[in-house]
Specification:
The protein is of the alpha/beta class and 347 residues long. Helices cover 26% and strands 20% of the residues. Helix 3 (133-143) crosses helix 4 and helix 5 packs parallel to helix 6 (209-226). It is globular, with a radius of gyration of 21 Å. Residues 9-20 have low confidence and may be disordered.
């Protein structure tokens, strides 16, 4: 199969319009989004298609955090970057702040860039080591013509203060800061354009535990001040549970379960969600808990199994069903907002 042969999206579906709080219009709506790459096998091999993001539908409301969890390689980062149009989608729709941005040119996309930003995973690699912090934080103001050059120092100083750094830090280079401080600078850069939506791409995974807590609480404070919407990408379920309003679980490019945080962590309908949650260490070392060990390795995304991609590792797989049909997200309890893509969920 070639990328050009991937069918266009079907009629919108799978987006939780009937979920609690549905009267508030989403700041972001993604419908049937797919990002596929053409990969060659060997020097003269035929090209194959890797679906890094496969038929994903989701939404995020103003002031809300949608946590996105899954194993490494599940497509979380690609989904976040595709939503921001840092990666060009193959098919599907992206509607941001009332405007469809799926196929906009770079010039037409620029006004929307101000409103949607990203905090990268690696605070060391995300800052140009040759630029002072002033130069780094001045770029968004100058690119988007949000401030005159005479106003830059004042704007940068206020940004630094908002993320807990002294204004005089603007004259230093990235190498003079710790990992946590660099991530604060990365957050300040994302906030410079006064966005409405921020993708947080594993922003604390490269930091130690004490610094992680500081950055997470900073993100929560900023969200409350500015009514920011977050897509928080992480493999750490404890952090996701702490700061997310809703959680989506991703496996091999697809959303397999999504719902309000309390509901999803209490019920864990999908076998994959249960396995992920069982791997989270307990704060009580004396408490016994069931550890679910998945058999086998994740499927090769270049040659995914037919039917449900998780069925080769699933103890609840139904022969002749799960290996043939692809389950769609469905709601087991009406108007709960909790959906699962599974033929044999835990109920």
């Amino acid at each position: 199969m070639s990328i050009s042969s991937i069918p266009p999206p079907r009629a919108p579906g799978g987006v939780e319009d009937d979920a609690p709080g549905a009267r508030v219009a989403p700041i972001l709506r993604v419908e049937r989004l797919t990002k596929a790459y053409s990969v060659k096998s060997g020097w003269f091999g035929k090209g194959r298609v890797l679906r890094a993001v496969d038929d994903v539908s989701l939404y995020v409301r103003p002031g809300e955090t949608l946590g996105l969890v899954g194993e490494s390689g599940s497509g979380k980062t690609t989904l976040g970057r595709t939503i921001l149009r840092l990666v060009t989608p193959t098919v599907g729709r992206i509607v941001f702040d009332g405007a469809e941005i799926t196929n906009l040119s770079r010039g037409a996309l620029r006004p929307h860039r101000k409103k949607m930003q990203i905090v990268f995973q690696d605070p060391y690699a995300s800052l140009d080591p040759r630029l002072t912090i002033r130069e780094t934080l001045a770029e968004p103001f100058l690119i988007h013509r949000m401030a005159h050059r005479s106003e830059i120092d004042g704007r940068v100083a206020r940004l630094l203060e908002r993320v807990g750094l002294p204004p005089e830090a603007m004259h230093r280079l990235p190498r003079e800061f710790s990992g946590g401080q660099r991530q604060r600078i990365g957050i300040a850069r994302a906030l410079a354009t006064e966005p409405k939506f921020v993708v947080c791409d594993e922003p604390v995974s490269a930091l130690d535990m004490s610094i992680q807590a500081q950055i997470v609480n900073l993100l929560l404070d900023l969200q409350e001040e500015q009514k920011l919407a977050y897509l928080f990408v992480s493999h750490d379920l404890k952090i996701v549970e702490y700061l997310s309003h809703r959680v989506a679980v991703m496996y091999l490019g697809r959303i397999v379960e999504v719902g309000p945080t309390a509901s999803l962590f209490e019920r864990r309908l999908h076998p994959y969600t249960r396995a992920l949650a069982s791997a989270v260490p307990s704060p009580d070392p004396g408490k016994r808990r069931l550890r679910i060990v998945l058999e086998g390795e994740p499927a090769n995304p270049l040659s995914p199994p037919s039917g449900c991609a998780f069925h080769p590792r699933c103890v609840r797989a139904i022969p002749g069903k799960c290996d043939v049909e692809t389950p769609q997200l469905r709601e087991l309890a009406p108007r709960s907002g909790h959906r699962v893509a599974c033929f044999a969920p835990h109920v």
